[in-house]
Automatic annotation (TrEMBL):
One of its GO terms (cellular component) is cytosol. Gene3D superfamilies: P-loop containing nucleotide triphosphate hydrolases, Putative DNA-binding domain, N-terminal subdomain of bacterial translation initiation factor IF2, Translation factors, Translation initiation factor IF- 2, domain 3. InterPro entries: DNA-bd_dom_put_sf, EF-G-like_DII, EFTu-like_2, IF2_II, IF2_N, P-loop_NTPase, Small_GTP-bd, T_Tr_GTP-bd_dom. Transmembrane segments: none annotated. The keyword RNA-binding does not apply. GO terms for molecular function: GTP binding; GTPase activity; translation initiation factor activity. Keywords: Cytoplasm, GTP-binding, Initiation factor, Nucleotide-binding, Protein biosynthesis. It comes from the Bacteria. One of the essential components for the initiation of protein synthesis. Protects formylmethionyl-tRNA from spontaneous hydrolysis and promotes its binding to the 30S ribosomal subunits. Also involved in the hydrolysis of GTP during the formation of the 70S ribosomal complex. Signal peptide: none annotated. GTP binds at residues 455-462, 501-505, 555-558. It is found in: Cytoplasm. This is Translation initiation factor IF-2.
Amino acid sequence: MSDIQVKALAAMVKAPVDVLMRQLKRAGIEVSSPEDKITDAQKLMLLERIKNEASSGRTETVDNRNAGAGKITLKRATPGGAGGNDRKPQGVEVRRKKTIGLRNSESDAQADRAAEQRAETLARQAENDRRVREAVLEKAERERRELELQRIRRQKEAKEAVAQPPQPPQPPVMPEIITPVEPVAKTPVVPEVITPVEPVMPSVAAVEPELVAEPPAVERVVTPAPIKAEATEPDTAATATKETTNVSGLEQRQLVVDAARQEASDALKRRPSRAKPKQSLAPKQVIGLEEEEPVINPLPGLVSTDDDDTKRGEKKKIKTRGRENERGNTPVIQHKGNKRKPGRAPEREVKHGFEKPTAPVIREIEIPSTIIVSDLAQKLAIRATDIIKSMMKMGMMVTINQSIDQETAILVAEELGHKATPMQVMDDEAILASVLGDNSDVALETRPPVVTIMGHVDHGKTSLLDYIRKTRVASGEAGGITQHIGAYHVDTSRGTVTFLDTPGHAAFTKMRARGAQVTDIVVLIVAADDGVMPQTKEAIQHAKEAKVPMVVAINKIDKSQADVDRVLNDLSQVGVLTEEWGGDVPVVRVSAKTGVGIDELLETILLVAEVQELTAPVDVPAKGTVIEASIERGRGAVATVLIREGTLRKGDILLCGTQYGRVRALFDENGRSVKEAGPSIPVAVVGLSSAPEAGDEAFVVSDERKVREIAELRQEKQRDSRFAAQNTAKLDNLFSQMQTGARAQINLLVKADVQGSVEAIRSELLKLSTDEVEVRIISSGIGGMNESDIDLAAASKAIVVAFNVRADAGARRLAQDNDVEIRYYSIIYDVINDVRAAMSGMLSPETREVFLGLAEVRNVFRASGFGQVAGCLVVEGVVRRGNPIRVLRDNVVIFEGELESLRRHRDDVKEVQVGTECGIAVKDYNDVRVGDQIEVFEHVQVARSI
């Protein structure tokens, strides 16, 4: 319903405009003219105000028509019904009237007139209020009466069908009788005691007039029912003449009541279930009538008050055949054919309050980056099988626990008739930026340079660094090669320099890339006797991508095979132009064994650093990069962090990728405990929740709650991406196996000492996979092996690869019981070679054809038992019996079969050497001709290797 003007609403409810405006103002609705509009909410406020006034006792109707006679008449009409089971229902209305005489004292005449005026004002106001209230009920009452008449007609037809005895004549309906009240002496006005009736149904009962307490001497009259009434008494003419003076008011009230009740009836008709049995709205007995009238059933949900029940009297108990209703004392009459007795109200039907929605429910959901099928079904409130069927129709095979991407989930939801939108993902970087703040206004100080040593394996990187640090690290490393990235800072007479030693093996590509990203200067080590090698080229590429300056150090110049010119030539071919060749890359000739050129190298490094003007803030929260991470016994997770700016102290809350924690201890590269670490200083941090990934950014944050939130958000993203990758791999494996059959697999569980080694071993082993044998890394991690690792390996039938770690006693005992193989390694070469050999053993052998000999047919004859026999001369190799052969004619294969018989001088022989004549019988072939050649070969299986 839209907004409506005040005057239109007044015309609708048949009430004066000024009265309606006054009602609106009392309800708190400001209107200035009849043309103002009011909304639906304001209408509800008006109706609530009217209901409140009705409950407070302001529904009295003051009749002041007899004001000239000094009387005040209070009237109240109560719709109801009367009748019995054998009577036709008749609508009646009980009207109560009380006349109170005014005081006859001359001294109180003025007060009486004022009281009469107030009574008239209250009467008019109450009448107008009643019109507004009862306009809501008029429509519902009209429809109710129509339904009641239809029910009465059906009952009447049913009674006539069962041949009921004739009904007694219906008593006439008395018109409204208003008895004039004689003037009496003026007495004090006795206030009426108003007893409000508790409303049962707000839409109908709340607007019913209140019951007014009256003395016993009350005259009750009967109003006309919807059916036509007949006047039976001749003495009512005078009364009817008097009634016509008030007909317009009564009709107007009746129209208002009918309109309101019509709306309630429309609401009743919209209900899907059958209407409940109706109860009487009025007393069943009317004073002044000798016979009972039929009862009119009210709207569902309305009940009568105890006072009305008392006035109605007791019902007559119906005689039954001894059977009572199981739910109460209401008797149940049995009839033949299980038919209900005509005229009886239908039994109450108990129905569930829930109604099935007629329209499909459209849900609006948000989809994260990845979602499991079962979770999507739960969001849509449907079965998971429906989603699986829909995706099968779209050409996708999924399971209930499979993860699908965001776009696919949105398409599926729209296919099912729902609305799906991408979920707004919280940005951990934005949260971190808001927590860290801006440190641009902090004073900058000069910091030491970070130098990364890069080059090919065995070119002397670690030995050169050992000479600078005066240590012997290279001699203690397994195989004499570096397999970890090391961070050291060296205090020289010219300043402090931080060195990062990177592995040179091909497996440690990511380590070298990380070293190039965090460095300020790259020192490229090239052996003078070896030249530029593959890892040398890779190091050059990393330096160019990181856009950092480079210094070339030609090592091993003390060897006799040293050729510096060849090294410079090779460098120019890969895009490195040295200063000697007209470029800008400085070159220093050094020897890590004798120490030649070491001082010159340090001077060159510090000169390049001075040109770069390296600065960083000091008195700010620390920021850095995780160089390496491991798990140590007694310490837990240990991360080597290179500080880029700020100062890291004990007690700081450190966030490293997906891990966080409070710094419990700090150690330098020599294992000594330190209290703080400044810019460009590497330090080992103890106190993180777990080992972070190498290459993660490290930040010091003061808000621990924000740190936990960011870490959990990153872990959730990492878990979702890993789960999605696993599902994708499973689908790829499924389709590939369906096409090419099952592929052999070798399952491995990798444990290493540091995160970088795990990363390198994983990448190298996964590269070994072929179309026939697949390498699967079941799990990988850092630290020693425990019983959980052995249980996982036993369940997945995997081989445990332990790189620089050992298993504890419980794990060794469990591995022995479950036949789990544990292989210990300290050199990455050995890991790769052993896995490659194991994969080669899983390859199916290759069948090859080996040529044995060739015989030329010289003559053809027939022999009993063999058929056609070819007399041949072995011209090449050897001819063996039972081997497969080919018959060649003009160097074209015309038959391929098996050699059935081989004879020499009528003796069976196993083989015939070259230059010897023999007789050959070919199985299932009789078309050998002179000049043909018989080629003999065999099939040999050869093991393959990767």
